[in-house]
Amino acid sequence: KKIGVPLTLTDYDGVEGQLVRFDGDIPIYYRTYNAGSAVTTRANMLHPTAGNGYSLTGLGMLVGVWDQNHPRLSHLDFRKASGESKLLAVDGPTAPSAHSTHVTGTVLSTGVSSSNFSGRGIAYEADGWIFDWTNDITEMDMYAAFGLLISNHSYGLIASQLPQWYFGAYVTDSRDVDNVCFNKPKYLPVYAAGNDRGSASSLNPTKNGNDLLTGDKTSKNSLVIGAVNEVANYVDKTSVVMSGFSSFGPTDDFRIKPDLVAKGVDVFSTISNSDTSYGSLDGTSMAAPSVTASLALVQQYYGSPFLNAATLKGLALHTADEAGDAAGPDQKFGWGLLNTFKMVKALDDNGELSIVEEKTLNSGQTYTINVLALGTEPLKASISWTDRPGTVITNSTDNSSPRLVNDLDLRI
Fold first, then answer.
1. How many CB atoms are located within 10 Å of the residue 344 CB?
2. Under the phi-then-psi rule, with left for phi > 0, alpha for psi from -120 to 50, and beta for the rest, what region is 398?
3. How many Å is the maximal CA-CA distance in the chain?
4. CATH number (domain holding residue 77)
5. Contact 257, 334 (CB under 8 A)
6. Which of 197, 216, 215, 217 is nearest to 207 (CA)?
């Protein structure tokens, strides 16, 4: 306040933002990203009622949720059958918010208060650690050391307060996330891409709706999620319809971001009005937690010692359903629509119809694997790794110099 920088401000869509720090002389404001999830990610095919033999519910899994405020902790859907709370609020108490309650519900709500469990979360028997967004990087590093495998972050920067060069740039937030992930190789943070495409003409007017990702969304080791309409029955790439708000990439060094898409339109989940309230919201904030919860089911299936984050992320990209006009990945849909069922099938078929391996590759080393292709079906191969933090870009618009430290190649 003393230097004329407000502690809070209201963005173009009426959402209030909070000053969290400065990046040099640039004030950084956080805001939330409001704007059939299990069906769209095919996580419903792993639930006991699907009859596919997996019966994955999130039991025994722990998911971190960072948000502006805490959810309504007293909501009946956040309690186990014993009456014990499923949630642990790690930092100080905050006023409950509809946004956080909705996000948390998408991850792990029991759905007990809804008709036919329509408000049930994807990992509905998982537990949650709850945080506000203050000191998020420090807390992520700390609790990943305690065994946290996956976390959800449905918030980001107020883009209208940022200079032009910030869009797509690898900045301090990007490096900090990559540093946490590099030092905690089992830990995967999932981020909402943002809802800024409706303001693209004023935010980044020369990019035709592209290059809208800011802050931690340009990190290398995280998983960034865009929002699409519900996909009740995937037939081909035309089944996946982009929302009107989801922020597009790529990064300035032309890495594919966002990574994946999931349902973020008309998502039904818990809200904070009462202990039995539900409501529908739109936004990449709603898409990200469906991915977070779905990947928790994959880790439940694999079990201890759990997949490395690079393997979990790589498998998600490898098995995603094709989306968008471009063949392969693009800056709108990423690698496609998350298909959790395909992920688990690939693990289930490992050594027969698929090969999933975690290896250490030293500098200059080559790893070779021989496979026999039938010739009647596609052969698909990919490689994924957790990269070292890169060098931060400062005040350089569209700097395309690579931010990758380890640049690995795959040849068939």
1. 25
2. left
3. 70
4. 3.40.50.200
5. yes
6. 197
Question: Following DSSP, what letter does each residue of 256-280 receive, concatenated?
Answer: --S-EEEE-SSEEEE-SSSTT-EEE
Confidence at residue 13, expressed as pLDDT on a 0 to 100 scale: 62
Q: How far apart are CA 86 and CA 108, in angstroms?
A: 8
Of 80, 150, 87, nearest to 110 (Cα)?
Answer: 80
The structure tokens 């299936």 sit at: 301
The residues that bridge with 269 in the sheet, in sequence order, are: 279
Angstrom distance (rounded) from CA 15 to CA 284: 14
**Residue 52 lies in domain:** 8-348
Spatial separation of the C-alpha atoms in residues 341 and 105, rounded to whole Å: 21
Q: Is residue 16 part of a domain?
A: yes
What digits encode the pLDDT tens for the residues 15-51? Answer: 678 888 888 888 888 775 444 689 999 999 999 999 9
Q: Could you count the other beta carbons within 10 Å of the beta carbon of residue 114?
A: 20
CA 367 to each of CA 244, 350, 360, 405: distance values in angstroms, whole numbers, following the listed order: 43, 19, 9, 19
The answer to whether the CB of 140 falls within 8 A of the CB of 134 is no
Yes or no: say if 295 and 150 are a contact pair by the CB < 8 Å rule.
yes
Confidence of residue 14 (pLDDT cuts 50, 70, 90): low
What whole-number distance in Å separates Cα of residue 137 and Cα of residue 148?
13
Q: What is the pLDDT of residues 86-137, one digit of tens each?
A: 999 998 877 899 999 999 999 999 999 887 888 899 999 999 999 999 999 9
Give the position of tokens 């405020």: 69
Mention every residue, 6+ apart, whose C-beta is less than 8 A from residue 125: 57, 58, 59, 108, 110
Closest CA to 149 of 61, 32, 271: 61
Is residue 52 included in any domain, yes or no?
yes
- The number of domains in the chain is 1
Q: What is the identity of the amino acid at 98?
A: A
Other beta carbons within 10 Å of 152: 28
Tokens 């971190």 label which residue?
A: 64
The residue type found at 25 is: D
Residue 37: CB atoms within 10 Å: 25
